[in-house]
Amino acid sequence: MGLSRADFEPIQQQMRLGHGDAAAALVTPDMLRLGMVGTAVSLIPRLEHLVDLGARHLSFGPPLGPDLFEAIDALGRQVLPQYSNRLARAREAMERQGIDLLYLSPGANAQYLSGWRRGRPHFGNVNYPGGWIQGLFVGLHHPPVLAVPRMVADFDLDPATSTTLEVRVLPDRGDPHTFLDSMLSEFEPRVGAIGVENRAWSEQVLGLRQVRPDVELRLASEVIAPLRMVKEVEELRAMETCAAIVDQAMNDIIGFLQPDSGQTELDVAYEIDRLMVKHGADGSSFVTNVWQMGPDEERALAMKASRRPLTRGNSLSFDFGSTLDGYCYDFGRSVYLGEPPDEYRRVHALVMQAAQVGIEALQDGQRTAEDVDALARQVITDGGHGEWFRHRLGHGIGLDVHEPPYLDRGDRRRLVRGMCFTVEPSVFIPGRLGARTEDVVVVGGDEGGRLLTRYRRDLQVVA
Length: 463
Known about the structure:
About 40% of the residues lie in helices and about 15% in strands. It has about 475 residues and is an alpha+beta fold. It folds into three domains: about 5-80, no CATH class; about 85-230, Creatinase/prolidase N-terminal domain (Creatine Amidinohydrolase, Chain A, domain 1, 3-Layer(aba) Sandwich), CATH 3.40.350; about 230-460, Creatine Amidinohydrolase, CATH 3.90.230. The protein has a six-stranded mixed sheet, with helices on both faces.
């Protein structure tokens, strides 16, 4: 369907009055056709911030001027995720696999297909009347529909989401089962198999069983996980910006460290979280971990950031990541507090050598995920510390911190250009030392993987 200027100029004028010229410029034929004007408006502060941050790989193209339509169409194509293309690919996969409908709880899959963003993670259990009904319905032909309880619609739903998606609201005293039955009827007559999230609420699954007892329930990951494995250009840009944020945070935190002063691991962890937000992150992608290992640190590996004071003679390991627009990063290093002994220097060098082997092995079509794990692991085994490399080499990363594929024994999926992995070998010897490194790496060609992190990789000593 074609759109003329007469179709969108009134909306553009309204946007100009409410949000200014930048917002008006984001109203284009393509944006209206995709129903993404709200998403465009939500990007305005992000675009301004990225300019301030000086994101390394983001180019804004031609300046805004009289011929604003062509300029902003180009901007939209460059920055905004291509949800229509993702939906088309998801529906093709649904057809192939005999899945008629996806019912996606709040999470990465729903954001990937629609832009509906999750709230920030927390430990609280927030409940609203009929809260389990929350989800994105994606059918084979019907436009995606978002179902939410009234409290979510009024207090939690991003205004951009209500602009870009059809939204159905469950009233406070509404019957969620009747509501769900009505939602499903919109996608009939073909609702024989429904794909739900791997970690869907049991209430949601039982509700489906109650209103559609004959429906076949499948995992939505069968459809969406393969699509998410290879990152699009826009996704890589978001993750490159996350990398720039953690690079800067790590650079700043080194100057913050004060061993033997009473400063604790928790002091450092909370400062890292503050620095990531200062440098542009929406928050941390998981609980920031900072922990010491050394001769006087007999502690379980499960114990991370604590109230223990930083002490010279220990290694200090970092594991943290930023989030931006729903995309995650994961980063790590180990530094030494005081003058490191020769043993620590050797082990640190061994870990960095294993990481380099893993990075270089991330080649398009050449190996499976478990092959790469084995190559890097052999370096540490040959160095005499194989028993202390006690986890997989790495994991996929994107809208989730951990997502498939996994650089681990048993994952025989072949690597493809554009996949993103952490590469994170380590040697942790309780009561002696800890050395780790972690970077996000994009699978490349014959040259191997491309590092997104630019932070230094040599041994840093904090005097």
